[in-house]
Design a protein that fits this description.
Elements: H1 11-21, E1 27-31, E2 36-40, E3 43-51, E4 67-73, H2 76-84, E5 89-91, E6 98-103, H3 110-124, H4 127-132
Antiparallel strand pairs: 1-2, 2-3, 3-4, 4-6, 5-6
Helix pairs in contact: 1-3
Protein name: MmcQ/YjbR family DNA-binding protein
Pfam family, one: YjbR
Keywords: DNA-binding
Length: 146
């Protein structure tokens, strides 16, 4: 099986992630080597792509069939809890604080995804940008569009 093209990430999934990540201060979207990623000051806080289980690099994803995978950062107890929770979460095979999550359009809790991505952003953003999230009048942690 060959590497899936970026456009295999379901458009609905991309739109939901854009609604979450695109409103964070100085966050920007770009195409990655596969899929799409969101960054703040050249640090990736979210990356979505289709995992191809036929590729050796995908063995960490525990997927038997192509699946949409989201990676993000988590810290401390949250990292430990997520990586030991079981599906849809798993520990990535790289990075000290990188969590993978299989996205299922019917079962994904998008409110939870929004909370996790805001925390991932906080983990990587400069302190001044992360402090802007403390002012929730801007709706940084609001429920994403459904």
């Amino acid at each position: 099986m060959t590497r899936p093209p970026d456009d295999e990430v379901p458009l609905d999934t991309l739109m939901r992630l854009r609604a979450i990540c695109g409103r964070l201060p100085d966050a920007y979207e770009e195409r990655a080597w596969t899929g799409t990623r969101w960054r703040v000051r050249a640090r990736t806080f979210a990356h979505v792509y289709v995992t191809d289980p036929a590729r050796p690099a995908a063995t960490h994803a525990h997927a038997a069939a192509p699946t949409t995978t989201l990676t993000f950062r988590a810290r401390g107890e949250e990292f430990e809890a997520l990586t030991h929770a079981g599906p849809p979460f798993f520990r990535m095979g790289w990075g000290a604080n990188v969590v993978g999550m299989h996205l299922d359009e019917a079962a994904t809790d998008w409110t939870e995804v929004a909370e996790l991505l805001v925390e991932s952003y906080r983990a990587l953003a400069p302190k001044k940008l992360a402090a802007l999230l403390d002012d929730d009048e801007q709706g940084w942690t609001a429920t994403p569009l459904s």
